[in-house]
Amino acid sequence: NKKITLSYFGEIDQNTGEDWENISLELSTGQPSRGTQPPKLFPWIVDFSKPFPTSKLLRSAPMKSMAMEESAGFSDMAAQTKVVQAGTSYTFQIPKRQTITAGTRKFRALITEEIFESDLAYTVIPKLSKRVFLNAKLKNTSDFQLLPGQSGIYLDGSFVGKHWMKDTSPGQELELGIGADDSIKVERKLIKKEEGGEGFFGQNERARYTFEIKLENFKKQAVKLTLKDQLPLPYHEDIKVKINQIKPKADDTDKQNFLTWNLELSPGEKKTITLDFQVEYPKGKVLTGL
Question: Model pTM?
Answer without folding.
Answer: 0.65
